[in-house]
Amino acid sequence: MMNATINFIGAGHLGKTIGKLLVQNNIGKILGVVNRSYDSAKEAVLFMGQGTPFSSLEELPEADITFITTPDDLIESLCSKLVSIGHLKEKSIVLHCSGALSSTILNVVKSKHCFIASVHPARNFADPQFGVQHYHGTFCSIEGDPEVTEKLKYLFDAIGSITYFIDGHKKAIYHAAGVFASNYLITLSKANLDCLKEAGVSDEIAFEIMISLMSDTLNNLKKIKSPEKTLTGPLKRGDLKTIEKHIAALEDTNKMMSHLYKTLALSTLPLTSLSKEKSEAINSILSS
Ligand SMILES: NC(=O)c1ccc[n+]([C@@H]2O[C@H](COP(=O)([O-])OP(=O)(O)OC[C@H]3O[C@@H](n4cnc5c(N)ncnc54)[C@H](OP(=O)(O)O)[C@@H]3O)[C@@H](O)[C@H]2O)c1
Q1: What's the rounded mean pLDDT across residues 72-88?
Q2: Residue 15 CA, ligand 1 centroid: distance in Å
Q3: Which among 6, 41, 173, 229 could disulfide-bond with 53, CB atoms 3.0 to 4.6 Å apart, if both were Cys?
Q4: 21 C-alpha to center of ligand 1: Å?
Q5: Which residue, by CA, sits nearest to atom 2 of ligand 1?
Q6: What is the value of pTM for the model shown?
Q7: Mean pLDDT for the chain?
Q8: Helix 184-198 and helix 203-224: axis angle, to 10°?
Q9: Mean pLDDT of the region 178-183
């Protein structure tokens, strides 16, 4: 694996980050990069510090490992194109890094006696330079042909990942979990900021309050290791009147946020240990 030759089809946020980590750690050798535009491939090669930019799949040399790290919707069709062009080394690995898709979307390469896999780093690569600097300890799920998953574990461990194997059939629910932990945390941050703005708090202070509260909650969760035991607030205490006031205030200002509040509260109620009566009373307010 250390000497493996590597191609990237789609070296964008994630591809560039992984590519640079491979180069920095002296793992394999990047041969070719094809992006949508040649200029972008050139820029990716410059960032990664190795490889040659090409303007089409037809020009890509054969490699031991081919990363297809384009947007998810393009992976399957680009993989078919790669097969039809035929520049695929026998027994080489073709992989993608999508969290939601199974490696089986690459099945077409089996006609060329290649192996398939998917490795998903659970991290936000919005800034590749930052991604490279802070990659160490990134959790990566791996699934695919058993002939190659151990090899890929070795490769991703070597760049600082914490790897583990998952079932390819469970990728969608696995990815939904990440959306809850990452994307919807942002949704909640926006709701928090909107409420503070409505309360007349300045943008600057509102942002600090939000980060402080969210960080405290995450730190407590990290220490206590249980959502049920970490929960505090009016729902946990069963403060029905306070909840009614929240809903009324939200209805007055932003109907969508009131809906979000109620939906989240309904999912939070089972985490409390309120009496059946109290729980039912709150449930009926939330469901109205
Ligand atoms: N970003 C993340 O935080 C993250 C995290 C985990 C997993 N992933 C996964 O990583 C994969 C890539 O995501 P990304 O965020 O890195 O996407 P991205 O930044 O949008 O990069 C996609 C790359 O694909 C290239 N591309 C587009 N169409 C192409 C085509 N027809 N032929 C060749 N290259 C083409 C683009 O080229 P141009 O530059 O020329 O447009 C770009 O370099 C996805 O499967 C995603 O699910 C991403």
Answers
A1: 96
A2: 7
A3: 41
A4: 17
A5: 125
A6: 0.88
A7: 97
A8: 140
A9: 93
Name the residue of 20, 35, 37, 186 whose CB sits within 8 Å of the most ligand 1 atoms, as the mutation to test its pocket. 35
Atom of ligand 1 nearest to the CA of 72: 45
Helix, strand, or coil here: 202? coil
Mean per-residue pLDDT, 246-266: 95
151 and 29 inside one domain:
yes
- Do 207 and 283 belong to one domain? no
Residue 44 vs residues 23, 34, 129: alpha-carbon distances, Å: 12, 9, 12
Residue 1's pLDDT is 59
For 193-210, give one letter per residue: b (16+ CB within 10 A) or e: bbbbeeeeeeeeebeeeb
Ligand 1 centroid, distance to 99 Cα (angstroms): 13
| Per-residue pLDDT reduced to its tens digit, 41-76 | 999 999 999 999 999 999 999 999 999 999 999 999
Kindly state whether residues 113 and 195 are assigned to the same domain: no
Together in a domain, 151 and 176 = no
Asked if 137 and 241 sit in the same domain, the reply is no
Q: Which of 128, 149, 166 is the last residue of a domain?
A: 166
Residue nearest to atom 33 of ligand 1 (CA): 35
- Nearest-atom index, ligand 1, CA of 44: 43
Judgement on whether residues 110 and 237 belong to the same structural domain of the protein: no
